[in-house]
Design goal:
The chain is mostly helical. Helix content is 75%, strand content 0%.
């Protein structure tokens, strides 16, 4: 049976969600988004559908839409670990400092099934913190060099 023919009950949000997941796994993100949309029309509180749609948007590099969907899932269920994790991945791609908080929330709410991912995430937080601190240090050094160069230019009346 093709993915397209999977829907047996058109009023069952879970059927659209499942087919959306199949499209997501095949990299057919527009079709996945369409099915997640249908699932959400039927059940507007379907957190997994928001998360799945967010994954499809993220795969298409539509990060604002992805973050919006992860946030909507978290409005419905503030302990939804997967949404925190996926949100962290987007924040990391965007270089946003909120990445650490999102990873920490994933760790806080993750069930035992995510034990190995929790350990990897703890390591990733350390790497992100190190990278962020290095970025801040480099920024401060560059600012100091710019000030010093500016002072030299002014002193020599070159500026």
């Amino acid at each position: 049976m093709s993915i397209r023919g999977m829907i047996i009950n058109p009023k069952h949000a879970g059927a659209y969600y499942t087919r959306g997941q199949a499209y997501l796994n095949k990299g057919q993100h527009d079709q996945a988004i369409a099915d997640y949309n249908k699932a959400l029309e039927i059940d507007p509180k379907f957190t997994e559908a928001y998360n799945g749609r967010g994954l499809s948007y993220a795969a298409k590099a539509e990060y604002d839409q992805a973050l919006s969907d992860y946030n909507k899932a978290l409005e419905i269920n503030s302990k939804y670990a997967e949404a925190y994790y996926n949100k962290a991945l987007v924040y990391e791609k965007l270089g946003r400092k909120e990445v650490i908080e999102a990873y920490e929330n994933f760790i806080k709410y993750a069930s035992d099934q995510y034990a190995s991912l929790v350990e990897q995430t703890k390591q990733r937080i350390k790497e992100v913190e190190t990278g962020y601190n290095l970025f801040i240090s480099t920024k401060e050094i560059n600012r100091g060099v710019s000030r010093a160069c500016g002072a030299v230019l002014v002193e020599r009346k070159l500026f």
